[in-house]
Design brief:
Blueprint (H helix, E strand, L loop, with lengths): L1 H27 L18 H7 L1 H11 L2 E6 L2 E6 L2 H8 L6 E3 L3 H7 L10 H13 L2 H22 L4 E3 H17 L1 H21 L11 H25 L8 H5 L10 H32 L1 H16 L9 H6 L1 H14 L4 E6 L3 E3 L2 E3 L4 E5 L45 H15 L4 E2 L6 E3 L9
Parallel strand pairs: 2-8
Antiparallel strand pairs: 1-2, 3-5, 4-10, 5-8, 6-7, 9-10
Helix pairs in contact: 2-3, 5-10, 7-8, 7-16, 8-9, 8-12, 9-10, 10-12, 12-15, 12-16, 13-15
Length: 455
């Protein structure tokens, strides 16, 4: 009996402690002037629900609190904004007290010099260095030939196999971007680098709790390994005293470059390029293939467009810049896939001072999640918004609309947009020609070398 009462007292004590902690945590953030909303549990906030429920979490919150509310996500008090007009204002207000506000876990994995984390003159300098790697001349002379060559050789390795598109588009996007960064070394580094990189990706959206067997700890260790490999690569390139490498690393190390970067800045820029390209290109490629396989009319139109290009060329000729610019329907497929699948749900900003936004006083240091997903399903912009319809993008300038935020907005418009488009266009032109194979889990296609020579 005594033991039972002892256990019961411990249980009630813990329950009381947790309840009091929960109430104090929420009362702390319930002061006058803040938007409505709830803050969840101490430390964790509402992170678990946010990550597990995704868009459903946002929908439920909006129904209860409107389009501007507070929460606590990924270890930080956060304001969520869903209103399109307000979101545009926030995105262009970097000079008015808002800076990039990505979570601690992402900043630590991508590095303090990654372009999404810096602001002011540092951002301008890093953005200039990145744009020098992806300008139209570099895309035309280096990147496009690299992508075409990579796709052909990579698909040769899959000849006769049935592949899982979700898995293989991730692998292909990573290895392709690595080859653009360090072309000669990519084949040696790639398969050693890739598992560590995937751990890093998982850790970017994890709670920053450095305990054994957590995604954060694994990502932290992976970041250390990746940094070590990249630093060694930089040292080897510098020691060679030659700069005949036609890749991004060669451009970064070019003595004539207008944008000199320190080794730490180059390492963080390389990791950011890999991360950004991998996340968007792999998911967009996979979803585009799925949508096209589910919509035979769109698939037939895309094949016609690519066949017209191939008919003008010899089988061994690569895709060139004029071919890329002529792929209007394929570009429409990418825009529609990005809209319908909502590859990027939003962007984060952080207040550098107490700021009044939308009639509320937002404290210094709070994050603002500019949630752009909802506008992708606005029927006034996109009639029948849940239908896959690439034709809606042809000839009407939808991609220039002020609420088209798939590639960011303000001074943070994605500088690598065109490289991502080229990567997906060339890949889609080859992968959609392979037949779909029925499988119990996921989307599978059968690869045949006879079809690899299509664009």
């Amino acid at each position: 009996m005594v033991s039972f009462l002892f256990i019961l007292s411990i249980f009630w004590g813990l329950t009381s402690f947790i309840t009091i902690a929960f109430l104090r945590w929420n009362v702390k953030y319930n002061r006058k002037g803040l938007p409505p909303g709830t803050m969840g549990w101490p430390v964790y906030g509402e992170t678990i629900e946010f990550l597990k429920q995704g868009p459903v979490f946002m929908t439920n919150k909006r129904l209860r609190y409107g389009s501007f509310f507070k929460s606590n996500l990924l270890g930080s008090p956060t304001i969520i904004s869903i209103d399109p007009e307000l979101n545009r204002y926030i995105l262009v207000s970097e000079a008015k007290g808002l800076i990039p506000g990505y979570p601690q876990s992402m900043l630590e994995m991508l590095g303090k010099f990654n372009i999404a984390a810096v602001h002011g003159s540092a951002h301008k300098h890093l953005r200039g260095a990145l744009l020098a790697l992806v300008n139209p001349t570099v895309i035309k002379d280096q990147i496009l030939p690299n992508i075409d060559s990579f796709m052909r050789s990579h698909l040769d390795k899959w000849d006769g196999k049935i592949v899982d598109i979700q898995q293989k588009t991730k692998e292909m996007a990573f290895l392709s971007f690595l080859s653009k960064i360090a072309n000669e070394e990519a084949s040696l580094l790639g398969y050693k680098f890739m598992p560590e990189f995937f751990k890093l990706v998982l850790g970017t959206l994890s709670l920053p709790i450095n305990l054994p067997n957590t995604n954060y700890r694994r990502a932290f260790q992976a970041r250390r390994n990746i940094t070590c490999w990249l630093r060694k690569l930089l040292e080897e390139r510098k020691a060679s005293h030659e700069n005949k490498h036609h890749d991004m690393l060669g451009l970064l190390l070019d003595s004539d470059s207008n944008f000199k970067l320190r080794d730490e800045e180059m390492i963080d820029l390389i990791i950011t390029i890999l991360y950004s390209g991998f996340e968007t290109v792999s998911t967009t490629s996979m979803m585009a293939i799925k949508y096209l396989q589910d919509h035979p009319k769109a698939l037939a139109e895309l094949k016609r467009e690519h066949k017209a290009i191939r008919d003008r060329k010899n089988p061994e000729d690569p895709i060139d810049y004029n071919d890329y610019k002529s792929m209007s329907f394929t570009q429409a497929v990418i825009y529609e896939t990005s809209r319908l699948a909502t590859i990027v749900n939003g962007v984060l900003r952080k207040t550098t001072k107490d700021m009044e936004i939308n009639g509320y006083m937002i404290p210094k240091g709070w994050r603002i999640y500019v949630y752009t997903r909802e506008v992708n399903y606005d029927p006034s912009l996109y009639p029948d918004p849940y239908t896959f319809n690439p034709w809606r993008w042809l000839g009407n300038g939808l991609e220039k609309h002020q609420n088209f935020l798939i590639f960011g907005g303000g001074t943070r418009h994605c500088p690598g947009k065109e490289v991502g488009m080229v990567e997906i266009l060339v890949g889609e032109g080859k992968l959609v020609h392979f037949p779909r194979v029925e499988a119990p889990n996921g989307l599978h296609i059968r690869i045949s070398a006879a079809s690899v020579d299509v664009p």
